[in-house]
Structure to design on (405 residues):
């Protein structure tokens, strides 16, 4: 069987489920198992899964037994070829916390770094100065402290784990945070109070690669699911804007402000076949020298021009977009304007779009069916609506979703 790419190891079934669903939301083919790794890997459904979530049922076990169970499961998943591991823990610190984390880290790889953050801002869990707060109160001042099976006696997570602590800095880049984590030790607790903190931490974990063992709740799983999907997408996202509507033009400017590389042929180049052929060759040569994972904007000239109608412009830009997709191995296409969207699909020989979601109302997201670019992510949008950042959001939607073959 084909090994799942990602495994989630949780100490109870409900936690396994609420973490696994974060991966489902961004398109990962995900299988939730009610049992341990051996059962999950033997399930025929796991052969189609990119993510499997296993349940060790270890929250109420003593530390020694919990470590044994978790270590066995992580070792089995690693041996099966899993490339990424997420250790789900209780967001209120219940259970044999240290024993499970240390066992998972040792079984994952010799140089593994457990990056611990049980924060979940959307559900009132935050981590500040190493202290876990639930709705603004230290966790030991909540009902978790009187849990009849697994009472929580310590709110300061680094103390609970005997580990290093790394606070976040709002002005630092993800790679800078990753470097501080890397220098801190084998188990590192990282603060997070906001969704932006969770995003930065997830990016830092991705920067650390397979060596990182993220440990958290659904709060950290959600951005990681997107960022791990992003890491699987290579190549640029090609955005085609043929609409003359002021909304579309403003949206194109928003994309440029975010660093998009612009190809804007002059009317004379679009009108004359020989000039157009030369322009395309030059554009493709430049595109092949661009860094990966960029955004390439193909922009029609503004206004009306003698001898140049909208259909001809759309056909030309659709042709260039198709060549960029096929010759430069683009990661996806966003097309604004009905004529432009049709031209791109025609140039790629696509029969249609298999819809999977929408970026926002009126912006379907899917993959091409038929033709040499079948399976390519694509977003289409009419020119006359949307907020100024909507094309940026469309590019992000292509980048941060898993599109299964």
């Amino acid at each position: 069987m084909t090994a799942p790419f990602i495994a989630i190891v949780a100490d109870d079934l409900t936690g396994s489920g609420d973490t696994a669903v974060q991966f489902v939301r961004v398109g990962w083919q995900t299988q939730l198992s009610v049992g341990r790794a051996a059962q999950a890997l033997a399930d025929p459904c796991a052969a189609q899964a990119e993510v499997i979530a296993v349940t060790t049922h270890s929250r109420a076990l003593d530390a020694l037994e919990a470590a044994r169970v978790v270590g066995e499961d992580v070792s089995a998943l690693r041996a099966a070829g899993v490339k990424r591991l997420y250790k789900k823990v209780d967001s209120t610190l219940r259970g044999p916390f240290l024993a499970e984390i240390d066992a998972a880290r040792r079984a994952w790889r010799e140089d593994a770094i457990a990056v611990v953050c049980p924060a979940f801002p959307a559900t009132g869990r935050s981590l500040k100065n190493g202290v876990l707060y639930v709705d603004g109160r230290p966790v030991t001042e909540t009902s978790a402290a009187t849990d009849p099976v697994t009472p929580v006696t310590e709110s300061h997570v680094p103390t609970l784990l005997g580990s290093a602590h790394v606070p976040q800095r709002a002005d630092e880049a993800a790679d800078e945070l990753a470097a501080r984590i890397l220098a801190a030790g084998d188990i590192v607790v990282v603060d997070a109070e906001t969704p932006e903190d969770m995003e930065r931490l997830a990016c830092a974990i991705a920067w650390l690669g397979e060596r990182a063992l993220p440990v958290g709740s659904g709060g950290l799983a959600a951005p990681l699911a997107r960022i791990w999907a992003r890491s699987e997408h290579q190549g640029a996202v090609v955005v085609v804007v043929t609409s003359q509507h002021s909304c579309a033009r403003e949206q194109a400017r928003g994309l440029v402000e975010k660093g998009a590389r612009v190809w804007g042929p002059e009317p004379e180049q679009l009108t004359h076949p020989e000039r157009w052929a030369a322009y395309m060759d030059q554009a493709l040569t430049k595109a092949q020298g661009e860094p990966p994972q960029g955004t390439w904007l193909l922009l029609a000239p503004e206004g009306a021009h003698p001898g140049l109608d909208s259909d001809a412009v759309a056909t030309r830009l659709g042709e260039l977009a198709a060549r960029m997709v096929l010759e430069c191995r683009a990661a996806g296409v966003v097309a604004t304007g009905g004529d432009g969207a049709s031209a791109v699909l025609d140039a790629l020989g696509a029969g249609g779009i298999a819809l999977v979601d929408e970026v926002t109302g009126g912006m379907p997201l899917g993959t091409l069916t038929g033709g040499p670019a079948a399976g390519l992510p694509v977003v289409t949008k009419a020119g006359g609506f949307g907020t100024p950042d909507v094309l940026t959001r469309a590019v992000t939607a292509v980048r941060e979703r898993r599109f299964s073959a």
Q: What stands out?
A: The longest helix spans residues 310-328. The chain has a mean pLDDT of 92. The chain has two domains: 6-231, 237-399.
